[in-house]
Amino acid sequence: MSKKPRFTRRTIVKGITASSLLPLLGGNLAGCSDSSDRLARVESVPADFNHGVASGDPLSDSVILWTRATPERDGTVVIGWELAADDSFDDILASGSDTTNASVDYTFKVDAQGLAAGTDYYYRFKTGDKVSATGITRTAPTGALGSASFAVVSCANYPAGYFHVYRDIASRDVDAVLHLGDYIYEYASDGYASEVAEELGRVSEPAHELLSLEDYRTRYAQYHSDMDLQACHEAHPFIVVWDDHEIADNTWRDGAENHDPDTEGDFSERRAAAIQAWYEWLPVRPPATEREIIYRRHQYGDLLDLLMLDTRNVGRDQQVDYNDHLAGEAIDVDSARAAIGDSSRSLLGRDQLDWLKGQLTDSTARWQVLGQQVIMARLALPEPLTRGLALGGSLEQAVAATLATAAAKNKPPEERTPEEQALLDSAIPLNTDAWDGYDFEREDLLNHVAQLQSRLVVLSGDSHNTWVSQLTTADGTPVGVEFGGSSISSPGVEQVAGADNAAVIALFATNLVDDLNFTNLADRGYLLVSFTAEEVSAKCLYVSSIVEPDYTIKQELEKNFVVPRDTLLLG
Ligand SMILES: [Fe+2]
After folding, report:
1. Dist. CA 229 → ligand 1 center (Å)
2. How far is the CA of 155 from the centre of ligand 1 (A)?
3. How far is the CA of 461 from the centre of ligand 1 (A)?
4. For residue 218, which of 189, 250, 249, 255 has the smallest C-alpha distance?
5. Global pTM?
6. Which of 143, 310, 455, 551 could form a disulfide with 164 if both were Cys (CB 3.0 to 4.6 A apart)?
7. How far is the CA of 180 from the centre of ligand 1 (A)?
8. d(CA 430, ligand 1 centre) in Å
């Protein structure tokens, strides 16, 4: 039990309030003439653009443009920016210049405004005689809209392998990339998923686990040196939310599993440093109000309202730990269920939940889409299987339990032995860090959705595996669909269970879990999600390798799910 006072909301946002973020904007607004007198007096340190360009948070009339200068020495760097309708920049529609310096780690952001809706723009930056790469971005459309499409990604782990997924998305025609978190990982260079790092020349920097602002900045700089990541940012605007590893593993409102206050200091200071670096290094619009930290709405015409959520920092109560609910070696199912179902526990926090319900109530779009971190669908597995996968229990036992349960499930109830029925009845959530661990709040939200008859599509990251599920209320009523994407490079179940076991578990999981329609537990990849007025389709794409320098998309693994708006039912 922590003796520290509980976090207040004000403490949480310490260091990330809107006013404290204003300096991060670093640039002027398109259409405004800058104080060129002021800039003329600035001695600009020579610099280059080594970390690419990026754009993000596209609205119908504005978009954030981003770059980062690498100066020859400390000082001030004057950066000019240009936005044009074509990549030759013959017809510059907006331009300006401003400075950046060490206070924002030489990152540079412009909120280019006064733009036309649903339009492609080219942009670039200049300093001295150096010109950045050219990026292309796209504003959000307004009015009647026939279709919209997004690449959906999460969990890019630099030491684990190449970012082929980013490279592949660079060549796709999508309106935006939705990044659902784990843009970086916080571990030391010999930590999680670092087995092939040296061989691939992808050893994490700094070598120690990230704690300070300088640490997080260094890690972002390394990620942004990756040419595949740069190519993806150049090609599309990103809409980004953080998950836990932008701070520390299994972050919650008041701490993280991978944070020890006795040896690693005050968690709120670590979080403030992590979030400052996140705002500096990503093309995210600083919040207009303190209330909306990263949860926000993006509208794509009359077709969809995209609601981006924060399930980590603003409201989450601490995760239920099965280690606190053991009976001998097994998980005490009744005790664990009671903890998970506790009505006082929250994932979003009251403010965000109220905001989300209000947004859903007010939405008149054809689709209501949630872009968020953790799996929302029910994903309960028989206790021995959950124990094997979640607590590092015996995998032989887990696989045996999978096979036994699948066999039992396929029998009529009256033909099952008491042992088989008990096995089926022992199902508990695989992951208490997901919505499954916050059952009361999920039910509250899904009942609201059911009442409104929202057309709900939930996009999720975090798990490193693909999970395509029907979203249902506790009484089994379908209220939406969830597409949980694989990872860019972080290892999935195959690392815990072995590839063969992962394949067995995947094969039977859809049989064991009523709401689960499809899972892939072994391959890295991403989702292409497209909306029309009548249907949503999600294509699951997987790369052939993340440790070979070249890759292909594995055609044989490709899956496409089409869900009609009128039924919201997976096939
Ligand atoms: Fe992850």
Report:
1. 17
2. 4
3. 7
4. 189
5. 0.94
6. 551
7. 10
8. 16
User: How far apart are the CA of 144 and the centre of ligand 1, in A?
Assistant: 36
Beta bridge partners of 50: none
Ligand 1 centre distance from Cα of residue 493 (Å): 12
| Domain edges within the chain | 24-141+176-294
**What is each CA distance from 517 to 507, 520, 535, 570, in whole angstroms?**
11, 11, 17, 7
Q: Which residues contact 172 (CB under 8 A, 6 or more apart)?
A: 151, 528
Distance CA 193, CA 182 (A): 13
Give residue 355 CA to ligand 1 midpoint distance, Å. Answer: 26
| Residues linked to residue 307 through DSSP beta bridges, in sequence order | 297, 370
Query: 506 C-alpha to center of ligand 1: Å?
Result: 19
232: its two tokens = 């993806």
* Ligand 1 center to 431 CA (angstroms): 13
CA–centroid distance, 152 to ligand 1, in Å, is 14
CA gap 398, 389 in Å, rounded: 8
Three-state helix/strand/coil letters over 498-545:
CHHHHHHHHHHHHHHCCCEEEEECCCCEEEEEEEECCEEEEEEEEECC
- 141 Cα: distance to centroid of ligand 1 (angstroms): 31
Closest CA to 119 of 76, 41, 63: 63
Expressed in angstroms and rounded, the spacing between residue 509 Cα and the centre of ligand 1 is 21
Residue by residue, pLDDT tens for the chain (571 residues) are 333 333 233 333 333 343 444 444 443 333 334 567 788 888 999 999 999 999 999 999 999 999 999 999 999 999 999 999 999 999 999 999 999 999 999 999 999 999 999 999 999 999 999 999 999 999 999 999 999 999 999 999 999 999 999 999 999 999 999 999 999 999 999 999 999 999 999 999 999 999 999 999 999 999 999 999 999 999 999 999 999 999 999 999 999 999 999 999 999 999 999 999 999 999 999 876 655 468 999 999 999 999 999 999 999 999 999 999 999 999 999 999 999 999 999 999 999 999 999 999 999 999 999 999 999 999 999 998 898 888 877 778 777 877 888 889 989 999 999 999 999 999 999 999 999 999 999 999 999 999 999 999 999 999 999 999 999 999 999 999 999 999 999 999 888 888 888 888 888 889 889 999 999 999 999 999 999 999 999 999 999 999 999 999 999 999 999 999 999 999 8
The domain 24-141+176-294 belongs to what CATH superfamily?
Purple acid phosphatase-like, N-terminal (2.60.40.380)
* Spacing, Cα 252 to ligand 1 middle (Å): 15
CA 485 to centroid of ligand 1, rounded, Å: 11
Compute, in angstroms, the gap from residue 79 CA to the centroid of ligand 1.
34
